[in-house]
Predict the structure.
Amino acid sequence: MGTAENLALVKEWFRRLADGEYAAMHALQTEDVEWDCLAGASEGIVPWVGVFKGRAGIDACLERFAGAVEAESFELQDFLVSEDGTIAVIGRTVLVAKKTRRRFHIDFVEYFRLRNGKIAYVRVFGDTAMANAVFKES
């Protein structure tokens, strides 16, 4: 696949994710897909942070996210596409913690590696300081 097709795939993946079309989103990923979602110091504090593998792992991440927050906004600001099949997406999400009703945002970069026309790896980088503060309270 070329850069245009790879970019279209990632944009469609985001659309399906945002629309809650998880089965359709999974169809765009490899069976052994790995999500490294803000892993690090926020693990154990922010419910959906960590490393998740395969469909069951990804579903667990999505369930934790849905159980903890409501998305107020989700904006994709820029796409950086490489000839080697990697893509980085810059964005911002505004969330509301369900338990405390506190609002916070995360500026993020999502890095994608593709394999055989599907998403094989997603790594999310972002500043989770505000999320940590919200979830430490609850």
